[in-house]
Specification:
Elements: E1 4-11, E2 15-17, H1 30-42, E3 45-49, H2 50-57, H3 71-82, E4 85-88, E5 99-102, H4 106-115, E6 121-124, H5 126-134, E7 140-146, E8 154-155, E9 166-174, E10 178-185
Parallel strand pairs: 1-6, 1-7, 3-4, 3-6, 4-5
Antiparallel strand pairs: 2-8, 7-10, 9-10
Helix pairs in contact: 1-3
Length: about 190
């Protein structure tokens, strides 16, 4: 059975995007960028909601060809393109870059994917992750907390029907006061 992880940058007050989908507060240090790149490199399958897919696919497929691209950006772009991905959307019509589109019930498909053999899965996108969270499908939460209060926007966590007990498995501090906390779901 595959493990499903949900990890994102978030503000200290719990948002993954500020009002207006502003992400300007979450620019990573080189060390944090490398951590995210290594995470992508180790992911067996990434699950994307439409909105985050559109943001990622508008930049990373050609980021390594941009003037001034750093070696880290080149590596991340290659890893991102090579990583198998599933986009959950009824509005998106086409996908590319080692990606398939799924238009049915997300929770049913994520449950099926978890039961398969293969590497770990990462889920990305607030709406998609919220559905998996409410269904009790997430095995790990990776919170990369930036020392900023944004006052609103898109929350990392959604309302859940029952408590979800967690075990802390890692903490790490990155430059700029950014703190990683990783938790596994207690089953």
């Amino acid at each position: 059975m595959r493990k499903l992880a949900f990890g994102m940058n978030l503000s200290l007050d719990g948002y993954i995007a500020a009002p207006g989908d502003d992400l300007g507060w979450s620019v990573p240090s080189d060390e944090l960028f490398q951590w995210w790149s290594d995470r992508v490199g180790a992911t067996g399958l990434a699950l994307y909601g439409r909105k985050l897919w559109e943001a990622m696919s508008s930049h990373w497929p050609t980021a390594d060809q941009q003037p001034g691209a750093t070696s880290a950006q080149i590596e991340y772009a290659r890893r991102w393109r090579d990583m198998p991905k599933v986009v959950f959307s009824s509005a998106t019509r086409t996908v590319d870059w080692n990606t398939r589109l799924f238009t049915g019930d997300a929770v049913t498909e994520i449950t099926r994917l978890k039961a398969d053999d293969g590497g770990s899965m990462d889920i990305a996108g607030a709406t998609l992750a919220a559905a998996a969270m409410r269904a009790g499908l997430i095995d790990e939460y990776a919170l990369v907390t930036h020392p900023v209060l944004v006052g609103g926007g898109t929350p990392f966590f959604t309302a859940v029907d029952n408590w979800v007990n967690l075990n802390l498995v890692e903490t790490r501090t990155f430059p700029g006061g950014v703190v990683l906390t990783r938790y596994e779901t207690r089953r």
